Amino acid sequence: MTPRKKSSKRKRDLAFHERNLRTSILSLLRREGSMPRVLIRERLNLTPAMVTRCIQRLERESLVGTEGRSRGTGGRLCRNVALSPKAGYVIGIEYNPEEIFTAVVNFAGRLDKRRSFPLPKAARDGNPQRLLAALYAAIADSRTAAARSRGLLGIAAVDPGIVDTVNGVTVASNVLPKWRSVPVCAQLAARFGVPVSLSNTANAILAAVDRLEMNRRYRDALYIEYREGIACAVKANGQQVLGSRGMAGEVTDPAAPDARAANREASAPPYLEEQAGLRAMLLELNEARHPAFPAGRPHREAMAAILALAREQDKTVAAVVERAWRRIGSAFGHLVNVLNPAVVVLDPHFGQAGDAALQALKQAMLNQMVPSLSDQVEIVVSKTEEPAAPVGAALVLLDELTFSGAIIRKT
User: Fold this and answer.
1) pLDDT value for 259
2) Residue 267 carries which DSSP code?
3) How does pLDDT run across 216-271, given as a tens digit for each residue?
4) What is the C-alpha R_g of the chain?
5) CA dihedral in degrees (11, 13, 19, 22; nearest 10)?
6) Whether this model's pTM surpasses 0.70
7) What is the pLDDT of residue 49?
8) What is the set of domains in the chain, with CATH numbers?
9) Which of 85, 66, 83 is nearest to 26 (CA)?
């Protein structure tokens, strides 16, 4: 190898090494928050010169800045290095049969803006072409929320159905009947030219709760979602459990109710959602001829009304809700025995039906736990501001872009 080629190779190797160091610094700040340079140097075992050189480069790229002061190891006040909100932003987008929600989360992990958009009636059956058009419009509208940032870094989609996160495909949905086998990530990436992730609602909400409410202090957690469907999300040994294709967490069948019945043996027990889901409660209240729940009432309106009447101790509604909550508590109590989480986080809806229904759920769950676990597991209702799913999905995508080094300019 000639001296010139050796010199060129050495420069390429040095550039590659420095990119890795800059990625390590960003990843450290992403995991642990702002800190002084001396702590960065100690955590990554770098020389002062190398830390200074990397941070100066990151500052030129608008990826980091300074934020407040803290004491270093010698007790001296030092300026903190922090991720810069001006480096760009990710748009999280969640959709259901009635609305689209977006959240603009900047590179520093802070929420800039939330938006909501009514889903056009023509798209409410999940027609892929019409629903994708509505998603395109919502994302385009939300891009103006962070005009001072470097630009759109990625899109984090949150789907109400069963999703294949590895391939970025919605497999099926029980609330959007025609929304099946849709390559969501490929469609959004082609439209906007940025990385796109796809997750289900429960996993996205747990990501938000874990980061914003629990400050990642639990290594093992179980989140129980109650929306149009019932689902759960699991964090084990510090990582969310997504399964082989990212489909973990579903506790329902995406088929329509009549298809469920046709495809299942008569002796088989019903799915949990058929016993305790929103549709099951609405059916029971319809059969009881409750005046507040005529057939055809929109699900989100019905959910709010059911919870409000249960909280106000309407006898019929309260009895229906308590039966559903007990079934859910009993089912997930068995799962707690299998997973042994430190905390079970309940969807905010569980806390909106009143103390009696909430206590019924907790007691049913505790009744199924082995005694050694029931004394150790915390059961809490999430207080994270809604909608949490698009924020959580955006934060996860920011993690991925940072840890993978995709955010670093390759120069």
Assistant:
1) 45
2) T
3) 999 999 999 998 789 999 999 999 998 887 778 777 654 444 444 445 455 455 67
4) 24
5) -90
6) yes
7) 93
8) 10-83 (1.10.10.10), 86-206+389-403 (3.30.420.40), 215-381 (3.30.420.40)
9) 83
